[in-house]
Every structure is written in structure tokens, then in C-alpha cells.
Amino acid sequence: MASSLIVPVAAIDSIAPHPGADRLEVAQILGWQVVVPKGRYRAGDTVVYFPPDAVVPSEHSDRFGVTQYLQKGRVRCTRLRGEPSYGFVVLPEQSWPLGTNVAEHYGVTKYMPPLRPSAGDAAPEHPWFLRYTDIENLRNFPDILQPGEPVAVTEKLHGTNCRVGIIDGERMAGSHGVRRLPPPADELARNTYWHPFTLPAVAALLDDLGRQHRQVILFGEVYGQGIQSLHYGRRGEFGFAAFDLMVDHRYLDWQPLRALLAQAGVPMVPVLHEGPFAREVVRQHAGGQTTLADTHIKEGIVVRPFVERTDPRIGRVVLKYLSDSWLLDTERSDYTEQ
Question: Would 139 disulfide with which of 31, 87, 130, 242, CB 3.0-4.6 Å?
Fold first, then answer.
């Protein structure tokens, strides 16, 4: 569920004094906070913003004087005299309009976490066994959701994206990008992507819907020890939590989705808020401890409107907001699945 790489031309929303450093200030740009040298920028200035996980060629990072702060060219989140700083800004070299993505101009690419080794179990793709929506970062698009718009906020679990479904009566399972062959029956429970079919409620829901529709795909997160660095109290076994359902090429609206999964007894990602959208609500729920059975941090949250809709800038409106603790955690794992 990757987000796209955006190096936007943006306006500085505000500048405030740094509480712990006389020569620094704190700028707010889109939904991000960036620590900047005092006096260099003012509120309303147009800048180019380089976000976390942008990989900047050395010819430009040398010119900007930031190479020493990057990790092999990768922009990382950090704390500067106690204040979080997410990326960096420079003055634009041309008169680009606000909102222009200048990643190509600077030759910036996106950092990609390492791929897990393939298990060699790829199955032929099926045109109706669709991948899940790519989820953009709410900090990059802070005005996509309107204040007061009814939204659902759920915890973003740090596991691996999984899709299980029934297409024309055939059971299918896969990671985000690859359909997977079924393992032997006695290995289903230990297979990351076929594991959800071992849950009676999941199997019953899919079988029931599969008798009524040509395409049914349940999307969720498989999590636990050995999948990523956060295990949510699952040691030696997988957990599964659903977050979306497609039936005949249409995603269900939020309230029918939640009601259907609850009625079927299918485990769901933790629901943190249902109600009017506000930036304060997002920040309130993004941080802190996971709501599952453990004491570690949250990765973040996912925000979606009650009623399915699209936006010309991002397509389907489903957005993520990663917690500050997660962004600043240099020890976290973040493997990419094929």
C-alpha cells in the first residue's frame, strides 16, 4: 500500500520560535513540521519541500549543504535540539506554481525498503483479483478531507498486506502485488497469505458472498512475530485484521463494511474514531500505544470517509498518517512484500 513520491512546491503555513534553540525556527508546511535556520524563511514563502524517504542525488544535496544529514542520500526524520523535523526545504529555482511535483527535476527517487526473499509460490495473476488501493500520506494532502466530513479512523497495523477472495467460485490469496499458490492443507495456518482462510468466520463470509457474486476480495493485515518489528503480542502465531472489502469491483462504504464484518465475526483493524474529520482528531489518535495486546507504539492511523469517493489528485480517498514516534524510530523494520 505504497504512497507516491512527491517533492512539492508549497507555501510555508507558519513559522514559530524553536523552544530549545535561539538560531532555529519551526516551520509548518502542508501537514509536516520542519526545523529551519532562524530568519531564512517567513510564513507565506514558497519553498520546495523534500519529504522523508526521498532519495536526493549528491549533486543536489551537496549544493543544498545537506548531504551530511542524509543516509546514503535518503531523507530521514530527526530531532533537532528536541524538536521533530521531517525533511528539509529549499528556495525554488524556477517560478513553479504551488503544488508542482518537482521530483523529476531534481532526479529524486523514493526509498524502497528491502524485499523479503520470494518463497517461489507465485501463481498466475487473475484480472479480477485486484490489488489494494495505494494509500497516500495525509500530511502531503491535508485538504483532501474536509473539516466536519464524516470519517472513520482506524489503527494502521505494521504487518503485511494480504488479500483473500473468491473469483468465479475459486479461492485465491496473495500479498499486495503477487497472487500466491495454495500450500498443502496442513500448512495453511503457517502460510502468511492463506492463513485467513483458516479462520472460520473469514472462510464462511467469503464462501457465502462467493455464492452470490463473481468477485469478492477481503483486504487485511497479517501481523505477528517475525513479520515486522511490531508484533502486537502475537508470538509464535499470526493475527489477521480486515480493513476493506470489494464486491463486484466496488468497495463497500464504511458503515455497511463494519456492520457486515461484525455480523460475520471477522476480526477488524481497531476503530479509533467515527465522526467529523478534524486535524486535531488525527493527531490525537495517531500517536501513543497500540490498542492491541502490547505496549509498543502505534505505526499510525488510516482515515477514510464514510461514503466512498475519489479525488483527482489521489484517486480513491483513503489516507494514512504515520505517528511521530514511528517516523523517528530508526530501529523499525519496514520490509516490502512482492
Answer: 31
CA distances from 186 to 109, 183, 194, 198, 220 (A): 43, 8, 11, 10, 22
Q: Which residues, listed in sequence order, are joined to residue 166 by a DSSP beta bridge?
A: 171, 216
Q: What is the CATH number of domain 136-327?
A: 3.30.470.30
Contact 207, 172 (CB under 8 A): no
- In the chain, the amino acid numbered 44 is G
Cell of residue 284, nine digits: 490525537
User: Residue ranges per domain, the chain?
Assistant: 9-110, 136-327
Q: Which residues, in sequence order, are bridge partners of residue 47?
A: 10
HSE value, Cβ hemisphere, 13 Å, CA-based, for 166: 17
CB neighbour class for 60 (10 Å; exposed up to 12, middle 13-18, buried from 19):
middle
Do 15 and 44 touch, CB atoms closer than 8 A? no
Q: Could you give phi then psi for residue 89, rounded to 5 degrees?
A: -130, 155
Q: Which residues contact 95 (CB under 8 A, 6 or more apart)?
A: none
CB 46 within 8 A of CB 10: yes
Architecture of the domain delimited by 9-110:
Beta Barrel (2.40)
Sequence letter at residue 206 = L
Strand, helix or coil for residue 282? helix
The model carries a pTM of 0.91
